[in-house]
Amino acid sequence: MKKHILLVSFLPPMEGTGSPIILKRHLSQLELQGWKISIVVPESSLKSANKFSNSWQIIPLTGRKWWWPPVKRAIPGLVKMRLPLWRWECEQYLGKERPSVILAFLCDIYPLLALHLSQSWNVPLSVIIHDQEELWAKSEKEAYLIRQRSIAVLRKAARIWPVSPELAQVYNLDCTKKISALYPIPEKNSCNFVEWKINFQSHPVVAHAGRLHPFQFPNFLILAQSLQKINGTLLIIAPSNNPTLAKLLDICPNVKYHEPFEQNKDVINFLSGKASCILVSYSFSLIEQPWAATSFPSKLIEFSKLGLPILIMSPCSTAISNWAKKNQWLAHITRLDEADIFNTIIKLTKRETWMKMSEQTQKFALHEFCPERIHSQFVSELPGKS
Fold first, then answer.
1. What is the 3-state secondary structure (H, E, C) of 73-132?
2. Could you read off the pLDDT of 311-336 as tens digits, one per residue?
3. Whole-Å CA distances, 166 to 96, 128, 158, 202
């Protein structure tokens, strides 16, 4: 009998950044391994989604029918009333067939549907967690409801994959046997590691690709000013209308930018010919960026395949700093200090220290961050796959 996974998510798996591309990569690999793929997502989210595999079964959830009671996230009773109606819609698409495993991404109310399906069909539920959703709540009441919703799902799940050990600790779950940290899977890439170039010595280029938040401005400003002292460049891949980028361009002549690329592989190819170092930057204030305490940056894993040194800027009390300390990361800055930043980037201009940083990145790219290894863990820990 063909193995069958049903994903329930607030967004469909698709190209881009964040969790949707992670889900897409795992499902694409499962398809190659002979799995049937079904995806349950809100109908409204399909409008912006890019093309799926033709063999994937898409089950769009209707937002509203006139005879259905409304869904209001702040009223758990109304959410509970909607779940059987959505289950009925899923059953119309699936017929008599049932998946062998249900996968949910912990965000919004849809994991509650995944749990409802799991219990109704007696199919094991697995959950991926990348962030604490309650940190983005607009009120304490909303944060409480989100947290209670998350705990209700996680307590009943057969397998839980937080992105970091710190994220697992947040929910105080008793059963550690069903919990294991799972790194965000990177895209497979056949490009070679970047080798040392003589111009790295005279013109280092530190590159940032991804979201650019206002609270990152102090980090980027001091880094750009430090690079300017050694004829270096801060290269930022972000939309030109980003306000933080605009401020940096006004102040620092050595800040350059490029518009985002449509596909991740294009970013990799671009950086392989331009950068001498990759930047992973968090605010040094957890008040400004509270999710840094438990999140793990997918860009660290994604860009490790370049083999370039990776500069991590993050305060001590974060998951990524705990990881960097454990692994004795050579380019790790834990405070916004000009001397620390300058002394670190100076090392990027010296072949010997650049090579040591590069070799460290390569080691993780080939082992812990290897996409085959991460997916193998995912598959081996899936309950109900046989």
1. CCCHHHHHHHHHHHHHHHHHHHCCCCCCEEEEECCCCHHHHHHHHHHHHCCCEEEEECCC
2. 999 999 999 999 999 999 999 999 99
3. 41, 14, 20, 40
Is the confidence at residue 373, as pLDDT, over 80? yes
In tens, the pLDDT along 115-159 reads 999 999 999 999 999 999 999 999 999 999 999 999 999 999 999
User: What is the pLDDT, as a whole number, of residue 172?
Assistant: 78
Closest by CA position to 278, among listed 338, 241, 236, 238: 236
Side-chain-side CA neighbours of residue 357 (13 Å): 26
Q: Identify whether the C-beta of residue 132 lies closer than 8 Å to the C-beta of residue 291.
A: yes
| Amino acid 381: pLDDT | 96
Phi-psi label, residue 342: left if phi above 0, alpha if psi -120 to 50, beta otherwise: alpha
CB 194 within 8 A of CB 384: no
Q: What share of the chain is helix, strand, coil (3-state, %, to 5)?
A: 45, 15, 40
Query: 177: which 2 tokens?
Result: 């046997």
Tens digits of per-residue pLDDT, 231-252? 999 999 999 899 999 999 999 9
| CA–CA separation, 204 and 358 (whole Å) | 14
β-bridge partners, 235: 207, 256
Please name the residues in contact with 87: beta carbons below 8 A apart, sequence gap of 6 or more. Answer: 113, 116, 117, 120
The pLDDT value recorded for residue 386 is 59
pTM: 0.93
The alpha carbon torsion through 108, 112, 114, 116 (nearest 10 deg) reads -160
CB atoms within 10 A of CB 182: 23
DSSP 130-195: -S-GGGG-SSHHHHHHHHHHHHHHHHH-SEEEESSHHHHHHTT-S-GGGB---PPPPPP--PPPPP
Answer yes or no: are the C-beta atoms of 161 and 180 closer than 8 Å.
Answer: yes
Q: Are 277 and 310 in contact (CB under 8 A)?
A: yes
